[in-house]
UniProtKB/TrEMBL annotation:
Recorded superkingdom: Bacteria
The species this protein was found in: Ureibacillus acetophenoni
Protein name per Swiss-Prot or TrEMBL: LmbE family N-acetylglucosaminyl deacetylase
Pfam families (alphabetical): PIG-L
Gene3D superfamilies (alphabetical): LmbE-like
Length: 239
């Protein structure tokens, strides 16, 4: 089984679902973090945009390793993401090559255009990857089983979590992975580390556990505490 977390920028997928990813990696799932851009335009004063891009790609690789996965960063520019056939087919080709069983990505609404476009790209790529009529590097069709949306402070318009995943045993690794990113630890505009640490605590309170991360699946599904993602149980009775 393969879990893929798709984010608009290096760091998005990790903050949104890094603890979930670690939980599944520990249970034997293959885990991949796919970043559509590096998120390099927020470069600090001591780095050029290109230098910061290189730094963020390395930070993503280090964070993914801590979480038990691998990192892939595409060659698109931060804040210039466009919804077109080229990028949809690029992601669809990755889906066919990597064969993820389920994908976690951004919620449909966001204050950041790249985030909103990312989930649209994922949804369209899901369709094209599954249709035999599309020739994508000669790879056979592959259909994702499910796509879930995860929680990001910039994507909260209409986000109502209906899945709470107990990540208590993975939260230490999650915080260690977050600390790999310069922007998470040093941003002067938003306290990323404090927010996501506190969010894990709050979601854990609501799930009656120590720490939790949330997903939104669809209206009408109300799962407050499963310990795992419904439809993707942890193998071997892992908790």
């Amino acid at each position: 089984m393969h879990l893929m977390v798709v984010g608009a920028h290096c760091g998005d997928g990790e903050i949104q679902a890094g603890a979930i990813a670690h939980k599944y990696a520990e249970a034997g799932y293959k885990v991949t973090f796919l970043h559509l851009t590096a998120g390099e335009k927020g470069a600090p004063a001591h780095l050029t945009v290109d230098e910061y891009r290189d730094q963020k790609i390395k930070e993503a690789e280090k964070a993914a390793a801590i979480l038990g996965g691998v990192s892939i960063t595409l060659d698109h520019r931060d804040a210039e993401l466009t919804f077109n056939e080229e990028i949809v087919k690029e992601v669809a080709t990755i889906f066919r090559r990597e064969k993820p069983d389920f994908v976690i990505t951004h919620w449909v609404n966001s204050m950041h255009p790249d985030h909103a476009l990312c989930q649209k790209i994922v949804q369209d790529a899901w369709l094209k990857a599954s249709l035999p009529g599309f020739d994508l590097d000669g790879l056979p069709p592959h259909g994702l089983r499910r796509v879930f949306h995860s929680e990001n402070w910039e994507d909260m318009d209409g986000y109502e979590p209906d899945i709470y995943v107990d990540v208590s045993d993975s939260f230490k690794a999650y915080l260690e992975a977050l600390s790999c990113y310069w922007f998470i630890m040093n941003s002067s505009s938003f306290r990323y580390y404090d927010y996501y640490k506190a969010l894990g605590t709050v979601r854990g309170c609501l799930a009656r556990t120590t720490y939790a991360q949330t997903l939104q699946n669809s209206k009408g599904l109300h799962v407050r505490k499963e310990g795992h993602i419904p439809g993707f149980p942890l193998p071997g009775g892992a908790k």
